[in-house]
Design goal:
By secondary structure, the protein is of the alpha/beta class. Helix content is about 35%, strand content about 15%. The strands form 2 sheets. Strands 1-2-4-3-5-6 form a 6-stranded mixed beta sheet, sandwiched between helices. A two-stranded parallel sheet has the order 7-8.
Length: about 270
């Protein structure tokens, strides 16, 4: 799998398939490999791409004494570096927030937007997942996962759970928790007032969330604010809905993209 220089960052990405680009954005302390079930499902019809965001996976790390780079800027530069002008973007948690901020800058440029586990805040609610408050001890080998997966999944699918831990827990992927950076001022400024800006998004949007995810109210709010958006809450699914509930997640995305691409006359052949 290749690396590409994006600004001053060495970005690692995976790519399989051909046709219309379908770009997956991972969540905080995860990496592109987490989307392996979506690659297996969509690669025969789409050019599937997933990249490791800065300070995650195999991509390079930013200076530890500096603010965290703006991830919507990173997405813009990555798409430009690959020559992708009209992507389908799917992102979970941090990745969903990133694609939504990107879409407020480019309201109609995406062929489709598929955020999951991410939305916008109602008055009095926190706007996004709070930043990490404590550094991870250097002797910790596996990241804590909180409520990202359900206890039932961990017990009934031990191999899948162990695979998830391995995906998240190489030394490089621990960087974000061992040395958390401050969000960039630009990122914080864009997060403020997001509810007022998402109303301008015209690209088709399908919002997916696990019904057990604390982000449900924010996802519902995003659905209310984005004209014509679709909303799906998957029963019994947690925050990482794309991983634990991959089958219903993929089915929802299939149905949504079939509707989006048919009237647009997309031939699944060009960026």
């Amino acid at each position: 799998m290749p690396w590409i220089e994006v600004g001053e960052t060495d970005i690692y990405y995976q790519e399989e398939g051909a046709g219309q680009p379908l770009v997956f954005l991972h969540g905080n302390t995860s990496c592109g490999e987490a989307w392996w079930q979506q690659f297996a499902h969509f690669r025969d019809r789409f050019r599937c791409i997933a990249f490791d965001s800065v300070n995650h996976g195999h991509s390079s790390n930013s200076p530890r004494d500096a603010d965290e780079p703006d991830r919507a800027d990173e997405l813009e530069r990555f798409l430009a570096a690959l020559g992708i002008s009209r992507p389908i973007l799917a992102g979970n948690s941090m990745g969903g927030n990133t694609l939504t901020r990107w879409a407020t800058r480019h309201p109609g440029d995406a062929l489709a937007l598929i955020p999951s586990g991410a939305g916008v805040a109602r008055a009095g609610q926190p706007g996004a997942t709070p930043p990490l408050q404590q550094r991870l001890s250097p002797d910790v080998l596996f990241l804590p996962i909180g409520d990202s997966l359900t206890d039932g999944f961990k017990q009934s699918q031990p191999r899948m759970f162990e695979r998830y831990l391995r995906i998240r827990s190489t030394a490089t992927r621990l960087e974000a928790m061992r040395y958390p950076r401050r969000p960039a001022p630009k990122t914080l400024a864009e997060r403020e007032g997001m509810a007022g800006r998402v109303t301008a998004i015209t690209s088709p949007m399908c919002i997916i969330v696990g019904a057990l995810d604390p982000a449900v109210p924010r996802c519902e709010m995003l659905h209310e604010l984005v004209p014509g958006s679709n909303y799906h809450a998957i029963a019994g699914a947690p925050h990482n809905v794309y991983y634990e509930a991959a089958e219903p997640y993929n089915a929802i995305v299939d149905a949504f993209l079939a509707k989006v691409m048919a009237p647009a006359g997309v031939a699944n052949a060009v960026p």
